[in-house]
Amino acid sequence: MTPLERALRERIAAEGPITVESFMEACNEYYYATRDPFGTAGDFTTAPEISQMFGELVGACLADAWTRAGRPAEAVYAELGPGRGTLALDALRVLRSAGFSGECHFVETSPVLREMQRDAVPDAHWHELIEELPNAPSLLVANEFLDALPIRQIVNGTERRITALGGGLAFDRDGETIELSPAREAAVGAVAEHLVKNGGVALFIDYGHDRSGKGDTLQAVRRHGFAAVLADPGEQDLTSHVDFVAVVQIASNSGAGVTSVVGQGEWLDRLGLEARANSLARSNPSRSDDIRAAAERLTGADQMGQLFKVVAIHSPQWPAPAGFE
Ligand code: SAH
């Protein structure tokens, strides 16, 4: 039994069955606080860990929006859940070469990942909450951040909970499921309000759907494969599909501008992934096959290209970032 499972069983014994939301929150907090989950030796690989091209194109997109906004000197780069800091490193390299000299701000709760982020970007500033970001125009990115925030599941009109059963844990009900995520809505709302107040743009990149739908999408990933959601609490990554319709709704309710929701593949292609891959392959001929494979993995319709979606939010005074139409 994992240490977290023991704690959850004690909690269930004391309080009764816990909601899916409390379970997911407790599991992911423990999971991210205790390890580096990324890469071949870990549990899963994210887009910035596949290739530097991903972060570079994010940086190019932000640099373009910042330039069209008149290059405000007080603008900062901000990232939610920066993982190993790889995306920030690659994006900031491009932003710096475009003349951006603003600070770097990270919203990260995991002490282990904060240390890795410090190795990548030593002069960054760290925060626990989005609300703590400085009041400055922001070039903000969140890649695979929303999917890790907890969801509620409503089964046939009733909150789904988790109980202790035999030596393990079990759901209290199954059936037609609707998923809601107050935590995601709060995060998107906080970003949109921050942009409306201070100016700037935000890119949300995640796997999910651009049509709200019914269904249980909660999943566990461990060692690059799917695992049972209730097995080994705190030892595997729990995520669910992000409802991009809700993201768009929350952002526009806050008075921010919102782009259309596009596939990651389409977006990266429009930002010039092929040209970047060609130029990288020319300067690293021995790595050219790897570079092509990485480009395909990021954009292929049967890989990350369609399942992963991108949407941008911008303050009314800032232009919509490129790549969405
Ligand atoms: N963006 C990175 C990492 C994605 S994994 C990448 O693409 O590689 C999710 C990240 O969000 C981790 O850094 C995790 O520690 C962080 N995280 C999860 N829940 C969080 C929360 N509530 N507040 C801040 N960071 C959180």
Tell me what the structure shows.
The protein has 325 residues and is α/β, with parallel strands linked by helices. Helix content is 39%, strand content 22%. The strands form 4 sheets. Strands 2, 3, 4, 5, 11, 15, 16, 17 and 18 form a 9-stranded mixed beta sheet that branches. A hairpin with a 2-residue loop joins strand 12 (219-222) and strand 13 (225-227). Helix 4 packs across helix 5 (86-97) and helix 7 (182-198) packs across helix 8. It is globular, with a radius of gyration of 20 Å. The model has no long low-confidence stretch (mean pLDDT 97). The structure holds S-adenosyl-L-homocysteine (SAH). The site of S-adenosyl-L-homocysteine has 19 residues, from helix 2 and helix 3. S-adenosyl-L-homocysteine is lined by residues 28, 32, 38, 46, 48-49, 81-83, 87, 107-110, 113, 143-145, 148.
SS-based class: alpha/beta
Tell me the number of helical segments per DSSP (H or I, 4 or more residues long). 11
* SSE arrangement, N to C: HEHHHEHEHEEEEEEEHEEEEEHEEHHHE
- Kindly provide the radius of gyration, computed on alpha-carbon positions and rounded to a whole number of angstroms: 20 Å
Largest sheet composition = 9 strands, mixed
Shape: globular
Strand content: 15-25%
Bound molecules: S-adenosyl-L-homocysteine
Amino-to-carboxy terminus distance: 50 Å
Low-confidence stretches: none
Helix content: 25-40%
Number of strands: 18
